[in-house]
UniProtKB/TrEMBL annotation:
<dbReference type="Pfam" id="PF14224">
    <property type="entry name" value="DUF4331"/>
</dbReference>
<dbReference type="InterPro" id="IPR025566">
    <property type="entry name" value="DUF4331"/>
</dbReference>
<protein>
    <submittedName>
        <fullName>DUF4331 domain-containing protein</fullName>
    </submittedName>
</protein>
Length: 463
């Protein structure tokens, strides 16, 4: 998955697990950037009586680098507090929740938002309420209205939301991790030829699941560095984005009140930039280390980008389908195209009218050229489909990042840096076979963009 349960240790700590990260120029406010960081993945909608929530003991942050050193120039920090109004009830709510101050709602979350820039911290908001989880039609009869009430416009220009949303990521997880099965090509799989006679129908494993989203809409001048101009080719137009979750270094269990006590400095336990980086590029033995490091240390992992394991697996799993890729990997050719896509950004001259390069520092960041306006007609394959406003220029909620990543690893992007290389015909068609149309909850055309979360009564996932 994009980053759901991507490393052994963070898989045990879903409250701090960064699941997806999005960064794009806002279609509903094109002078701003929308940043969305999802946490607490794979939520079954029927998860009561202890419904899902952010962690009071977790520091969530969205970072922006605007000068190319892979270090945060602007950070938005979210810290949460949970309050129980009736300690003698086991219920999440005792009646319909029709407003954020409803007396029927027993377990509420609030958060503070702090902006860190130029070495200074500025608290932008305190005690902003989250909406409840979408319990069901009796408990949360007008959920979209509750989410609207929990969306705030700050005096400093930001718009903010923190709460439950429908998971918009689409992936055929069961097939992909069954020895790399791609259902549209399953009958060509080295083992699948004995099992499958025809291509199969993909299944969106994350459909009808919820996540908890931290969403920000930020004016350009709050994230870009000052410059005389911000054209497509100007370095000041490009920002790099990543998200992290941190916990206190020391945790003492079972105090006098039966509660744990956390103390000491915060230690990073999770991070996310590009989708699938830690999931697919970083080897198992280093995944937890990667989660603990800042992007400025990603040169340690560059060799796994230059020669990704999956590029060697595709020809082995699908004999005869990727002969050119097989020769490329056998020659141990360093994949400069993937280094540009994932670690440095694409320099000018590789794609007409486009660049999102941030310099020579190798770092896993979502790189967004803010001078490229939203597309009137977006293509789900982003830059590979001729739509310069899409992935890997940032990431929009509907971008088919799994297919784009597969096609890049399969060799489709090699000609960007080696015009003599001819990609295999399959490289332009390889896909898990899913799109945004396979997400049941429709995306919104406005902030916070991800759809209304599924409830535990009407969603089949509750069965």
């Amino acid at each position: 998955m994009s980053s759901h349960r991507e490393a052994p240790e963070i898989a045990k700590d879903p409250v701090a697990d960064s699941a997806d990260l999005y960064a794009f120029v806002s279609p509903d406010r094109p002078d701003s950037v929308t940043l969305i960081a999802n946490y607490v993945p794979l939520q079954r909608p029927s998860g009561g009586p202890n419904f899902f929530e952010f962690g009071d003991d977790v520091r969530y942050e969205i970072h922006v680098d605007n000068d190319g050193d892979a270090r945060p120039d602007v950070t938005y920090r979210f810290e949460f507090t949970t309050e129980v109004t009736n300690p003698n009830s086991f219920l999440y709510n005792t009646g319909p929740i029709e407003s954020l101050d409803s007396g029927n709602w027993n377990r509420r979350q609030f958060y503070s938002l702090t902006r860190v820039a130029d070495g200074r911290e500025h608290r932008l908001a305190h005690r902003l309420p989250c909406p409840p989880c979408n319990v069901g039609p009796l408990s949360t009869p007008a959920y979209a209205e509750l989410a609207r009430q929990a969306t705030f416009r700050l005096s400093t220009g930001e718009r903010v939301f923190a709460g439950q949303r429908a998971d918009g990521f689409f992936v055929d997880l069961g097939a992909v991790f069954d020895l790399g099965t791609l259902r549209p090509f399953q009958q060509l799989h080295v083992a699948g030829r004995k099992v499958f006679r025809v291509e199969g129908e993909p299944v969106n494993a994350t459909d009808r699941m919820n996540v908890h989203s931290i969403a920000l809409q930020v004016p350009f001048d709050r994230v870009r560095r000052p410059a005389a101009r911000y054209g497509v080719g100007d370095p000041a137009s490009v920002i790099g984005v990543w998200t992290t979750a941190s916990r206190r270094q020391v945790r003492v269990r079972g105090g006098d009140a039966g509660t744990d006590v956390a103390t000491g400095p915060y230690v990073q336990v999770s991070r996310l930039g590009n989708p699938l980086f830690n999931e697919v590029i970083v080897p198992m033995s280093r995944k937890d280390l990667w989660n603990s490091l800042p992007p400025s240390e990603d040169k340690r992992f560059a060799r796994f980008v230059e020669q990704p394991e999956l590029a060697a697996l595709l020809p082995a799993l699908y004999p005869g389908v990727f002969p050119n890729l097989a020769r490329l990997t056998k020659a141990k050719t360093a994949r400069a195209d993937l280094v540009a896509l994932l670690l440095t950004g694409l320099p000018s001259g590789l794609v007409d009218g486009f660049t999102n390069a941030t310099g020579e520092v190798q770092a896993d960041l979502l790189r967004l050229n803010t001078a490229i306006p939203p597309s009137s007609r977006s293509d789900r394959f982003g830059v590979l489909g001729g739509d310069l406003a899409g992935f890997p220029n940032g990431r929009r909620v509907g971008d088919d990042v799994v297919t784009v990543a597969l096609r890049a690893i399969a060799g489709l992007t090699v000609p960007l840096v080696d015009r003599a290389f001819r990609p295999d015909a399959a490289a332009a068609t390889v896909t898990p076979g899913l799109s945004a149309a396979d997400v049941t909850a429709p995306f919104l055309d406005r902030f916070p963009y991800l759809g209304v979360p599924y409830d535990g009564v009407t969603s089949p996932a509750a069965a």
